[in-house]
Amino acid sequence: MLNTPVRYLKGIGEKRERLFRKLSLKAQEDLLYFFPRRYQDRLEITTISKLEPGFYFLFQGKVLSKTEFKGFRQKNVLKVLISDDTSSILCIWFNQPYLANYFDKGKEFVFYGKVMRYDGILQVNSPEFEENNFSQGILPIYPLKEIFTQRYFRRIIRDVLEKNISKLSDILPFNIRKKHDLINSAAALNNIHFPKDHKILEQAYKRIAFEEFFLISIPFILQRLISKKKLGIRHIIDDSLVNRVRNNFGFELTFDQQQVLEEIKNDMVKDYPMQRLLQGEVGSGKTVVSSLASAFSISGGYQIALMCPTEILAYQHYNNFKRWFLNTGYEILFLSGSIKAKKNIYKDITSGKAKIIIGTHALLEDNVKFNNLGLIIIDEQHKFGLVQRNLLSQKAFYNLKVWPDVLIMTATPIPRTLALTIYGDLDISTIRQLPDGRLRPETVVYNKENSDSAFQFVLGQVRLGRQAYIIYPLINESEKLELKAAVKMYEYLQSGIFKGLSVGLIHGRLKETEQKKIMDEFRDGKIKVLVATSILEIGVDVPNATCMIVEHAERFGLSQLHQLRGRIARSQNNSYFILIANPKSEDSVLRISAICHTCDGFEIAQKDLEIRGPGEFLGSLQHGLSELKVADPIRQIDLLKAAREEAKSLIEKDPNLMLRQNQALKQALEKKMPNYKEFNKLT
Ligand code: ADP
Ligand code: MG
Fold first, then answer.
1. Tell me, what's the pLDDT at 625?
2. Least confident interval from 308-312, 451-455, 551-555
3. 284 Cβ below 6 A of ligand 1
4. Which atom of ligand 1 lies nearest, measured to the CA of 379?
5. In angstroms, rounded to a whole number, what is the distance separating the alpha carbons of residues 582 and 453?
6. Per-residue pLDDT for 362 more than 90?
7. Which of 102, 398, 489, 649 sits between 20 and 30 A of 569, alpha carbons compared?
């Protein structure tokens, strides 16, 4: 059985099982889907006389003799002399005395390893070896983190394949496979592990990539299908409230903002529930737009809820909404986990006295019962999964019996095809321009050696009345990484270059109330220089803060750096984004160069995707679905489109997956996507 624990395989006991766990391998199925990182081509055996030092070879021979002795520092050394008809070679192992038993004189083996010549003698250190002849062919190399040997692991995989492959039912129906020229899943799995040749390996990859795209698309397609059929609120908008809020802004909306506002309005006045993603860079004015959408809903008598991933962000929105709804007579409530006296808050939410409710995931708690929730706004969507998103809608539906409108805001813009995949259930609105007159921050790179002048520059700006952030990758110092950590540097800077100025410290291990207090002081200008970790990445908005130094910038992801930069592009003053970086790896050089070359969030996202590869990029979005292991949404766009289309037509024909040919798919969805069952229950 596929979900049988690995323990039931031959030769795996409790101890080994624990090692498998380190690689997140629990069930036999996990092994089937644990793919090689790369392959070694071992199609040909080379005779020993033709071996050349410096290269990897596959060779074969008989044991002529073996010796064992204690070498340097009492290390056990095993030397085995191997010969074929043409010549001989010495195979050497260190500290693996048990291997001696394998090499009985006269026995024949196949070896694979890097050949060297040492003191004139041809030799190879710790070659892989096998008594039988399987080592020929294209061999998988797994990402084993040195927990197992490749040889051992291959044996296990063979065993798992043998035991399970015949029982595997294909999740892709036959007609889809045929139409897109895809091999069946048994062949794909057999060949992704042990390819017969390069051609079938390619087919195996194509098949598995298609399957991944297919699976990842389904929940969103389902969600969209379901939501379009639901009955929503036909909002009736009273412009006088909307105009009062607009007047409180003190600025005009940009063209893009007006455009997306129209799209939102158009949804809200229709009787289906809006499911819209509003994407735009940090500072592009999404929250401003969401406040007008709120006014639409409130003007018709409904409540609105705004949910954020962090308390800092929620509190900031709360403050903004208070300004924007000033003198409109509507009550605004703030709710987060750290608020003690919640009873009255719950009461005001339930009675409908509070019209605007802003908070963290505390809004999801059972005690929060809305009176008539008409619009849900979710900030930073990727931190919340589909299920959480649905929970709020569910609450609203509970007493209204119609579905609320949902607006999701994200500052992680992604290329459109990708958006279709991971936000497939949503309509998308995009703000591309920043508010007029706003200057892009100047981005400068320093290295460790000349970082003093960066700090001098910032000191100068602070003396001119501006505020600054200094960002570190870690909270506490770690000896291993030798990184300057926020806490230590806070003390150092406070008594050093920024002596006499008020310096603050903020990081994720402070209590949320403490964080809030510090942010308030920074916003009020009491704190001039704020030392922080990347906690600042999301949302914080202090227009007077125009400088940011990021130390060890090479340690940050590209999108992360861009988000940080967004913190200081908030006013019409010049702003400075200063990186202190000593990039060493190729990736970090690419990241630093990209951040200097463009300020466009979409370009940054594209670059980030290229540098990191889709797996990690998507992983960081935490969209709650199984990661793509093989599929590459950038290079395989056509395959992605095809898989999405097929998934869509399959779901439209059989939304509840009742047909017999879709049973394997149904099971896979339930198993691979922990959310799926729950998700199905909700919808
Ligand atoms: P986002 O939510 O996309 O990060 P916000 O809505 O918080 O952006 O806006 C960022 C900053 O820009 C806020 O200080 C806001 O008041 C200001 N802002 C938004 N839209 C405009 C505009 N059209 N003109 C001038 N300033 C604006
Ligand atoms: Mg509507």
1. 42
2. 308-312
3. yes
4. 2
5. 16
6. yes
7. 489
Nearest to 472 by CA among 481, 459, 483, 456: 483
Asked if 559 and 411 touch (Cβ cutoff 8 Å), the reply is no
Q: Centre a 10 Å sphere on the Cβ of residue 43 and count the other Cβ atoms it contains.
A: 12
Burial class (CB in 10 A: 0-12, 13-18, 19+), 506: buried
Distance CA(212)–CA(663), nearest Å, equals 17
For the Cβ of 211 lying below 6 angstroms from any atom of ligand 1, the answer is no
State the average pLDDT over residues 99-121: 89
Q: Residue 409 Cα, ligand 2 centroid: separation in angstroms?
A: 17
Q: Which of 541, 546, 565 to mutate to test the pocket of ligand 1 (most atoms within 8 A of CB)?
A: 541
Q: Which amino acid is at 257?
A: Q
Q: Whose CA is nearest to atom 18 of ligand 1?
A: 285
Q: Determine the Cα angle at 624 with ends 615 and 591, to 5°.
A: 35
Q: Is the shortest distance between the CB of 285 and ligand 1 below 6 Å?
A: yes
DSSP of 227-280 = HHHS-B------HHHHHHHHHHH-SPPPHHHHHHHHHHHHHHTSSSPPEEEEEE
Note the pLDDT tens digit of each residue in 304-334.
999 998 888 898 899 999 999 999 999 899 9
Q: Would you say 171 and 650 are in contact if contact means Cβ atoms under 8 Å apart? A: no
pTM here is 0.64
Q: Quick one: 584 exposed, middle or buried, by C-beta within 10 A (0-12, 13-18, 19+)?
A: exposed
Regarding the beta carbon of 435 and ligand 1, being less than 6 Å apart is answered: yes
Instruction: Give CA–CA dist 457/193, Å, rounded.
Output: 56
Q: How far apart are CA 624 and CA 616, in angstroms?
A: 13
Sign of the torsion formed by the C-alpha atoms of 313, 315, 319 and 321:
positive
DSSP codes of every residue in 585-616: SHHHHHHHHHHHH---HHHHHHHHHHHH-HHH
DSSP letters spanning 131-153: SSSTT-EEEEE---TTSS-HHHH
Helix (H, G, I), strand (E, B) or coil at 83: strand
Return the beta strands (E) in 432-589 as ranges.
442-446, 467-471, 503-506, 529-532, 545-551, 576-580
pLDDT at res. 622: 44
Residue 588 tokens, joined: 């970090």
Helix/strand/coil percent split, the chain, to 5: 45, 20, 35
Residue 541: other Cβ atoms inside 10 A: 18
CA of 645 to the centre of ligand 2 (A): 27
Distance in angstroms (rounded) separating the CA atoms of residues 302 and 282: 28
Q: Indicate if ligand 1 lies below 6 Å from the C-beta of 286.
A: yes
Ligand 1 site, residue 328, Cβ cutoff 6 A:
no
CA distance 364 to 297: 20
Convert 626-650 to b/e letters by CB count within 10 Å (16 or more is b).
bebebbbbeebeebbebbbebbbeb
**CA-to-CA dists, residue 96 to 57, 69, 75, 102, 507, angstroms:** 22, 12, 9, 11, 47
Question: Which ligand number lies closest to the CA of residue 374?
Answer: 2
Q: Does the pLDDT at position 372 exceed 90?
A: yes
